[in-house]
Specification:
The complex is a heterodimer. By secondary structure, chain A is mainly alpha-helical. Chain A has nine helices and no strands. Chain A has a domain of 106 residues: Up-down Bundle (Four Helix Bundle (Hemerythrin (Met), subunit A)), CATH 1.20.120. The radius of gyration of chain A is 25 Å and the shape is globular. Chain A starts with 12 loop residues before the first helix and ends with a helix. Chain B has a single domain, classed as Helix Hairpins (Orthogonal Bundle). The chains are: A mainly alpha, B mainly alpha. At the A-B interface, helix 2, helix 3, helix 4, helix 5 and helix 6 of A face helix 2, helix 3 and helix 4 of B.
């Protein structure tokens, strides 16, 4: 942990005040506290039986993860995680809970095999992790490869000052294109699955008109699903 | 002493592994399909951490250029994880849509009950 934090001599006084650095040890300590909280939340998620509780805990988990990403200097990722991970995911999970009910039944099966598999995977991962360079040092191999080039480009105004934006848009546009393709495919999949569901429900009700419009489908949604569930149970 | 030092310098990785195997355990052991999906998202999130941890340089700053700084964290894993987060939420959305359909077809989202109702299983 060599003191790499020395900022260049700033030109103006007000910049100097803004450049007051956090001590590396303090940074590492904050990180360890947040990581321990994350592990505690995860244990709570594993043990919790009420699905509503699980969803809320996973929201807390996502916000803690976003805080951790802030400490890890990944500010863009932290913003995305806070909006997408903690926001959209939680809303989707709550909407599904509304349709499916929120109690997990007690288990009858043994947890010996899953526990063994998880711990074996964990042991292999720990064994593989010990060989990695220690956390936070600047001369790790990954910091010697392309990252200095990106920093140099931003410095020479060949790229925007935010390097994440620059790499995302300039160097890895095809990644983003692939991401858009995946999201598009998932969106089509969700639409097909849910619309297919409404059509099956209407067939069960022996409706004459096959092409019912979307409004009917949305309004008939809850009633239709409970009817189907009742029909299967009977 | 050596072990303690490794624990301190690799603490991020070890907690990442704890999150990862918790997600794996939930996916294998729990029967409720929504809980399985939450486990899957735990696993995905731990992968974000696995990528972002080595990108950090202690004493560095976020990768936004400012003449007052010269040490920046590595921006490349941040870009990869931005993509991964969005793909992750797309996966969860598709999985939840499947769960809603399963609930309509079987009246339950517990795996054991679905197997007992499904004539094709076993």
């Amino acid at each position: 942990m060599t003191p790499l934090a020395t900022p260049l001599a700033p030109a103006a006084g007000h910049v100097a005040a803004a450049v007051e650095k956090v001590e590396p040890n303090v940074e590492a300590f904050i990180m360890m506290v947040v990581l321990t909280l994350l592990a505690a939340i995860t244990i709570a998620i594993v043990k919790q039986r009420n699905m509503f509780g699980v969803v809320i805990l996973s929201g807390i988990y996502s916000f803690l993860m976003a805080s951790l990403m802030m400490v890890l200097d990944a500010v863009d990722v932290a913003m995305t995680e806070a909006s997408v991970g903690a926001g959209i995911s939680t809303v989707l999970l709550l909407a599904t809970l509304h349709l499916t009910g929120s109690m997990e039944y007690p288990q009858h099966r043994s947890i010996a095999i899953p526990l063994f598999v998880s711990l074996a995977v964990g042991a292999i991962l720990v064994w593989g992790t010990i060989g990695l360079p220690e956390f936070g040092i600047a001369d790790a191999p990954m910091h010697q490869h392309v990252a200095p080039t990106y920093i140099e480009y931003s410095k020479n105004h060949q790229m925007p000052p935010n390097m994440v934006t620059a790499v995302l848009a300039d160097f890895r546009s095809f990644d983003t294109f692939g991401e858009v393709t995946v999201v598009f495919t998932a969106g089509i999949g969700v639409l097909l699955l849910l619309q297919g569901g409404w059509r099956a429900t209407s067939n069960n009700r022996r409706d004459d008109d096959d092409d019912e419009d979307v409004e009917d489908a949305v309004h008939g949604n809850k009633e239709g699903s409970s009817k189907t569930a009742g029909g299967r149970n009977a | 002493m050596q072990a303690l030092e490794t624990l301190a310098t690799h603490y991020n990785y070890f907690i990442t592994i704890v999150l990862m195997i918790s997600g794996l355990f939930i996916v294998i052991a729990r029967g409720n399909l929504i809980k399985k999906l939450v486990g899957l998202s735990l696993f995905q999130t731990s992968v974000y951490l696995l990528y972002l941890t080595p990108a950090k340089i202690l004493g560095g700053t976020a990768p936004i250029y400012n003449p007052a700084y010269k040490v920046y964290s590595n921006p490349l894993p941040h870009v990869l994880m931005l993509t991964a987060i969005v793909v992750g939420v797309a996966t969860i959305a598709l999985g939840l849509a499947l769960v809603v359909r399963i609930k309509e077809a079987y009246g339950t989202i517990e795996e054991d009950e679905i197997f007992s109702k499904d004539p094709d299983s076993e």
